[in-house]
Amino acid sequence: MSSDEHLGSLAEAVLEAVRDHPVVGSKVDEVRTATRDEKKKLAMAMRAKQLKSIGLKANEKGQVKAESSVLQQFQAIGEESGLACVICREGNRFQPSKVLAIYTFTRRCPLEEAEKASRKTMGFSTVSHFNLVHVDCHVAAVRQARSRDVWESAQLQNANTRCNGLLPLWGPGVTEVAFAACLARHNTYLTDVTGQRDIGYQATIHDIKLLLLKFAQEKSFSCDSGGGGPQSNLHTLPYMVHMALYTINTSRASGREQRGLETWLDSPPTAWIAQATAVDGPFYQTTMGMLLLSPQEWNKKRAQILQRLLLTAQVRAADQPGSGSEQTVNLVEVAEYGVYRSAVLFFGMVDLIIKEMWAGVPTKSDQEWCVTLADWIRNNDEAISSRSTSILQTFQDDLLPAQDLGEVMDVCGLLAEIPSAPSAILEVLSQLPPTS
């Protein structure tokens, strides 16, 4: 108690004065004890309330501990072990319903450099630094950076790598409606870049083919985008495969494409030279086989596919005769390894992906392989990441340093099927019709 007249101080002085009386003094002590206990009780109640608000409590000894229910919540919290957004740092574990997408960079380019038409068929080529973002987080970041262009803003999140697309991932908890909407948005981005209005799965398979050729020809992945290398692009490739598979499956085109692949494999030797420079030639068909053929089916056809790729490399080299001291390539004799190198490395990468990346994907009698593979890619991001790393290491350590076809075939486990590389080449060369 306090006031301008100092009543509190005067009252305290009165109580001290009467404490000498035996009866009144004991009453004063009782009142003071009761006042202290009440204040302590109120203080403890306030302390308990504040501790409870942050998930803690005090036991009888006054020790502060966390509540069991809060501990259980903390046990469930952990780091994202799979793919995660570069902005919010959360992924399919903590934001399962949000669509993750890969920042990509796409440029317009010819689908086939060897095409003989006066005006080459145009398509596009995509690369990535493999930085992922929630589509919602991307939109929010762009909205905040009003003064910058959409992709200039996105470039800051993409490790300062140029980008102009968002390849969506169909996560296990994402609805098909949400994924399809994001895929349509990505196709709109591609249309803006390439000028192509109808972007179907064929364009995506050509895109995958061109990415595989970058590995085979040891081309730079970052010359246009300014970032991203072999590893980040090999991480991206399975999700490009999923994009193509989704369109194939929803349009029910797998049967038609399977028949097209079989028709190409069974085509007569008279058609092989023309196919070697066609837009949908052997490299395109091999890429299509990577999507449509199970590992078991691939093993049955891969020797035949390799022979056709080797023939394609020789036909293209024969169309470009050497000058000076360079040896002219013909369609009768086996050429040096350099003629076949990019084709056989292309085959080697496809073979590794089918045998190692798709290893363990179950085959179901009541379901087409391309449907099963799309489901597996959708639900196994951690396995894809670790297998991509292993595949690239095998490719760089065992395939790229190879000095002849025999070494590559040994790495691919083909020596039992093709004991002699020269004989395999001569076999297909001998079937070509004679040239005048």
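[next item in queue]
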Amino acid sequence: ESAQMGLTFIILGLILMSNDKVSDEVLFKFLKSLGVYEEDKNLGKNARTTQSSSSASSIDADVLELFDGDVRKFINDVLVGKQQYLKREKVQTPNPDVEVFEYSWGERADNEVKESSVFKMVCEVFECDGKMFKEQMERIKKKEGLDDEFFNFQTQK
């Protein structure tokens, strides 16, 4: 369960730092770079994969087990559908045959999670000063009524 919440907060951080929306392509490329997602190469670039432990996967079997073998399904069924930490919306594209989705913070995340806490986590993970992300910092300050003092946290290097 803590691994699932960790993934949830990582995704919320990506969305926050991407001006509150992220395409499914960007999200799953990011998760692939973290080693928790892999597309099914047999189905092509836009494939939606089912990651089973029986397939040849570069993802650790223990990681896959945490998400019932399919990270994309976990995100869409659990984080979007059941828990509503994320919202998933179809985006209009010039080609009606191509489905593109965007993810944003869901109702539960908006109600239970402070953007400032996620922002601080992102800065700690990347060992950087929050003032490096002026646009996000200003948006959070305005939304949560924070002053500059909040953003004076020091990351440990």
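[queue empty]
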